[in-house]
């Protein structure tokens, strides 16, 4: 069963990776990077502070926890444990697959890009679903960033899917932890005031 899933994953990767255009290559490379998203992060920080004021510290703590958890689980634990080479490091695909500029570390399962972007999207959606509508677009952003990794030849689709699942889960866990800590802190402050 595992071998069948791996075969389908590799076949899907080869199909998706073969769909590339010269004009799109630098765009996907930029999408996969960090610098291009700095204005987005600044905009999100602005929205958080504008809507929550002093309470925004809890959101920033939650985002930090969500990304820390998702990144450490994928990069710190899963990649060294599973040791699945990235497609661009797999000699079977030499001359077959497309890789643009950069390959990254040796192992790729699961994708940290996918886990981190989906963790942020999940945390923001849960936190603001009542206050600010429309944060669902962050999932589209996370999906585009994640797809860029397949396009560039540095991840298989399963790396992305598992990474996205982990990111969503870590976003939920970070939100739950922050809510519990915040409620405990508020309770203690109220008890001290009595």
Automatic annotation (TrEMBL):
According to the entry, every stretch annotated as the Phosphatidic acid phosphatase type 2/haloperoxidase domain falls at 60-175
Cross-referenced Pfam families, in alphabetical order? PAP2
CDD domains per the record? PAP2_like_4
Domain of life, per the record? Bacteria
Keyword set for this entry?
Membrane, Transmembrane, Transmembrane helix
User: Is Membrane found in the keyword set?
Assistant: yes
SUPFAM superfamilies listed in its UniProt record? Acid phosphatase/Vanadium-dependent haloperoxidase
Transmembrane domains' residue ranges: 27-49, 56-74, 107-128, 135-154, 160-179
Name of this chain's protein: Phosphatase PAP2 family protein
